[in-house]
Amino acid sequence: RICGNVLRYVGPLLRGNRHALRQLRAAFPELKEAQTRKYLNGMWNNIGRNFAEYAHIRELMDFSPDTLDGRQVIMDHHTAVLARQIAGDKRGALLFAAHLGNWEIPAMAAHASGRDIALVYKRQPSRKMTEELVRMRSQFAGRLVEATPSTPRKVLKLLQEGWLVGMLVDQHFAQGIEVTFFNRSCAVNPLLAHLAQRHNYPIYG
To answer: What is the pLDDT of residues 106-140, one digit of tens each?
Structure first.
């Protein structure tokens, strides 16, 4: 709560707040200003909580699809069934998530289900931050694959070896394909769709 409240007050002073404000207005032009500010404050609060939770990864990982509400992470029935299905199917598969809630939880769920998961990650502007994220994610991901031109080849090899491969799909990708989203042009990464189409690997969101 402390980290969430701190970032709730610091976040609006950062450049990212202006970017988030533009995105929110594009998505929900009918929102009144007070409601828009409330959502932005909630976003910063969530990010602050996420930062704090990185210090408690081992505790967060203490959950299972067999104990829906008895641990740190609560699953609904549908999610638990899906997790058990992924656990029982030893083929390689693609998992995607977005920056919602704590976006590390889906990868932890794969680990909690007994599957090896590799994560595709994007290098951060700060070398130290990149190294720290890799160190923390290594606690629940067996492999970490940096997003580079050789990533498709590496990911395909992991899939062939029966790994789950997870990636976040809501980030700008300069060399990607253009799609229209909320009446605006966005460049998105087609890697996940290409791998699924060409090699017939299942996709889970």
So the answer is: 888 888 888 889 999 988 888 998 999 899 999 99
HSE of 133 in the Cβ direction (CA atoms, 13 Å)?
A: 19
Spatial separation of the C-alpha atoms in residues 96 and 169, rounded to whole Å:
6
Residue pair 163/202 in contact by the 8 Å Cβ criterion: no
The rounded distance, in Å, linking the Cα atoms of 23 and 182 is: 9
Residues whose CB falls within 8 Å of the CB of residue 7, separated by 6 or more in sequence, listed in order: 44, 45, 47, 48, 51
pTM given for the model:
0.85
How far is Cα 6 from Cα 90, in angstroms, rounded to an integer? 43
Q: How crowded is residue 141: how many other Cβ atoms within 10 Å of its Cβ?
A: 22
Instruction: Compute the 3-state secondary structure of the chain and give helix, strand, coil in percent, each to the nearest 5.
Output: 50, 15, 35
- Angle (CA) 109-114-117 rounded to 5° is 65
d(CA 128, CA 126): 5
For the chain, report the end-to-end CA distance as a whole number of angstroms.
28
pLDDT tens digits, 159-173: 999 999 999 988 888
Partners of 156 in the β-ladder = none
